[in-house]
Amino acid sequence: MVAVSGGKDSLSLWDVLHRLGYDADGLYIGLGIDGGVGYSAESQRKAEQFAAEHELRLIVVDVAEVEGATIPEAASLTRRGRDKPCSVCGLTKRHVMNRVARDGGYDVLATGHNLDDEAAVLFGNTLSWSVGYLARQGPVLEASAQGLARKAKPFCRFYERETAAYALLRPIEYIYDECPHAVGAKSIYYKEVLNRMEAERPGLKLSFYLSFLEAKAQGVLPSQGETGAAGLHPCETCGQPTSAPGQCAFCRTWDQVRARHGLTAERASPR
Length: 271
Prior knowledge:
Layout lengths: L1 E2 L4 H12 L6 E5 L8 H15 L4 E5 H5 L3 H6 L9 H18 L5 E2 L4 H13 L3 H6 L3 E2 L9 E2 L7 H10 L16 H15 L3 H14 L15 E2 L6 E2 L6 H12 L11
Parallel strand pairs: 1-2, 2-3, 4-6
Antiparallel strand pairs: 5-6, 7-8
Helix pairs in contact: 1-8, 6-9, 6-10
């Protein structure tokens, strides 16, 4: 299964996998983000258009229908969204992707993260020395017995400009706009810093990322199995793996949203 956003990277990945003969369904998560440009509506339209043109199956999960509120609404009602909805958005997407991949029996969940994305994440985690996140970063995140689906990032060694060129040459119609809430995000700043460094030293991003993977392979950094997975257990509400006692962060957040939004768990659609 491929997580698709309507953007160039995810649609290009879906296209490549389809052309290589993989039986890959798509998953689109409707976040309810408008930003004055109808962002979610347009991105969903692009994903549905691609699926229809290639006769592929697209699974659509509308967060507002399932959980009772859009991502911007949820962010405004929780402490996670005091500044931006990005935290609630990321939490929700990870939950939905893992649930659909696991419950659907998919072998792997593929995402369109490119080298620019991965280098920026690596840069940020290195600056804060977030060992747990560094341990989990890589081209493949193996499934766990506790219920985490296997995840892969086939484009992690390709520059963003390369995936953009592929989409142009195919040609693939995708949404050009970035998420309206991405303005000022740390990831954007890290990308800008790395772009300046790349301009001075071409190939720096790839070298940075590949050196990191080599260091992990040599045991310089802990592996995925050495951090986190052993401490996971099923959430008492949704059954998804969590390291938190009792409820997972997703269920705590969305229960809070529903309570403040005037909904009850029974009124919201099932997870």
